[in-house]
Structures are given as C-alpha cells and as structure tokens.
Design brief:
Elements (H helix, E strand, L loop, with lengths): L2 H8 L5 H14 L9 E8 L5 E11 L1 H9 L4 E3 L4 E5 L3 E13 L2 E10 H4 L8 H5 L1 H17 L1 H4 L2 E3 H4 L23 H32 L3 H16 L5 H18 L4 H17 L4 H24 L3
Parallel strand pairs: 2-7
Antiparallel strand pairs: 1-2, 3-5, 4-5, 5-6
Helix pairs in contact: 1-2, 3-6, 9-10, 9-11, 10-11, 11-12, 11-13, 12-13
Length: 314
C-alpha cells in the first residue's frame, strides 16, 4: 500500500509537505496513520494575493481518550475528581476546571487546569455546533487536555484535543454593506459593473471558504449527528445563495451517504449504500477520497457485524 497516497485520500486537504510529517508523528506516537486517532490540522496563512497557503507545520489533533491512554501507559496516571464548572447569572457557563492525579516518587499529586468559555468557544458558525449542544462536555475536555499535558509533557507535548482547536478554524467575517447614497446621484455604468463584479467575487469567496470549512468538518466528523447537522447547514447556505448548486449537491450527497453508512445495521444495507456511492462517484457529485472514506466505513462495519454474529449462540 502506498501510505502517502492513503494519507492524502483520508485527509484530502493536507499539504503535500505535511504528509511525511504526519506519518512520522503517528510513528512517534505509535498510532496507525489510518486509524484517524491523530488528525492533522493544516497551518494556513494568506499570501500577498489574499490566497490561503501553507503557513507552517500542522497542529496534531486527537481525542481525549487517546490522551488519557498515553498518560495511563506511564503507570503514573489516575483520574481526578469531577470537573468543576463556573456559571454566572444562573445559566451562563464561564469556565471549567479539570483535575488529574499523578504518582510522583510514591506520592499522589493532583494537577488542575482551567479553560474559559470566551477563550475557546469557536463562535456561532458550524464549528460551534457541538459547543452549543454540549457546552460542559466541550469545555471540560479542553480543561482536561490542558491538565493532562501539564502532568505528562513528555508524552503529550504538541498533541491537542479537537475541542481545544475548534476556535482556530478560519472564519469568514461578513459585514453589512454601506448604505446607498440618497438623492439624484448618477453612477456611471462602468462603476456599476465593477461594483456588481466585486459583490459577485466576494460572495464566491465566502462560499468557497464556507465550503472548505464544511468539507473539513465532514472529513473529521466521527458521529452521525454531526454529519446530519453539517448537511442541514449546507442546505441553509444554499437557500441564502452562499453555496452554488454544485457545492450544495456535493456536500449534501457526501453527508447523506456517509450518514446512511454510519447508520447501517446489516450487510445488505451496506452493499446498497456502496452501490449508491459508486453511482455518485460516476456522476461526478462525489470525490474519490470521499467515496473511499464511506466505503472504508462500510468495510469496517461489515467486520463488526460479522464479529457480533459469531458471538451469538445457536
């Protein structure tokens, strides 16, 4: 298997320069590059022309479970007491404080770290969906990840839980246009054309940025409810004219097929969805990388179903 090609298929937006870095990071962490337990988040910046380009090495994103496991492998980790949450005005979450324990020279030492909502909440866009749905879980994971890195820096330095990095995703800000001039002001036709062209280009740029953000979120989605929410978000942007028909069709097709595959319960259903994936790929509304991801999920699901069947006594 061509590992570099496989990594590019799983993470289609990873920069070529970062593929070897990702493979090396997985080897260093003793993680299978195909497991998606570590996800590269590209480091991007705008060049002089305003285009997004590689800005440096990516950040390495993982799950809180892997961070706990890495700490536990040292033989010095113990779970701390329950996370504490601070609220104001009764129902407004302000911060979370997480605790972990570490055995140092025979003594149990407690470490704690805090995370503030205003520092980590990624905003009201698609990146903040899970934060609004489960605020304590997301802020609690962020605080615990910081505490784990503080206690086990050698094992966890440079590794971040996904919730910690949600606020670093690129956002496209939209501003209200200036009010139109009043009175008998004659606007030259060429100026009107330039303004309309500028508006169209700005709208297209916003659509492309939102499209990239939605696809990145889909590539990293692990739960079917997240996939469904992204699909609903794409429909809203299409109605608002932010997504064009092609962008809308590609995202909604990817969402529908991926969600259906995640919800599959038997071999026949998996095979039926696989046929739909092939049809969408042939029609050009699904990329090869996305088709491979859905198919790979189906293969894993079949193995799980076979394993469960073998456990059933006859």
């Amino acid at each position: 298997m061509d590992l570099r090609k496989a990594v590019k298929d799983i993470f289609p937006r990873i920069y070529d320069e970062d593929v070897d870095l990702y493979i090396a990071e997985c080897e260093r962490r003793k993680v299978d590059p195909m497991s998606r337990l570590i996800v590269p988040r590209p480091n991007r910046k705008k060049d002089d022309r305003g285009y997004w380009v590689r800005g440096g090495p990516p950040a390495w994103i993982t799950t809180i479970d892997l961070m706990r496991a890495r700490a536990d492998e040292t033989g010095t980790y113990a779970p701390g007491r329950e996370t504490e949450y601070e609220y104001v005005s009764g129902d407004t979450l302000v911060s979370a404080k997480a605790f972990v324990k570490k055995f140092v020279q025979g003594q149990c030492i407690e470490f704690s770290e805090s995370a503030r909502w205003d520092e980590f909440y990624p905003g009201d866009g698609i990146e903040g969906t899970m934060w609004r749905k489960m605020p304590e879980v997301m802020l609690g994971k962020t605080a615990e990840a910081r505490a784990l890195r503080r206690g086990w820096p050698a094992q966890l330095a440079g590794l971040y839980e996904s919730a910690e990095m949600d606020q670093s995703a690129e956002h496209v800000e939209t501003h209200h246009p200036p009010k139109a001039a009043t009175g008998n002001v004659r606007v030259p036709e060429e100026t009107k054309d330039s303004v309309e062209t500028a508006k169209a280009n700005a709208k297209a740029a916003i659509g492309k940025a939102r499209y990239d953000a939605a696809m990145t979120a889909l590539d990293n989605a692990m739960a079917v409810e997240n996939v469904v929410k992204i699909g609903e978000f794409a429909k809203t942007l299409h109605v608002e004219g932010i997504f064009d028909d092609d962008q809308h069709e590609e995202i909604t097709t990817y969402c529908k097929l991926l969600a259906n595959m995640m919800n599959s319960t038997d071999h026949q259903e998996v095979d039926s969805i696989a046929i739909n994936v092939s049809s969408a790929l042939a029609a050009g509304v699904l990329t090869q990388a996305h088709a491979d991801r859905i198919t790979k999920h189906g293969v894993g699901l079949k193995k799980m179903l076979d394993s469960e069947e073998q456990k059933v006594p006859y």
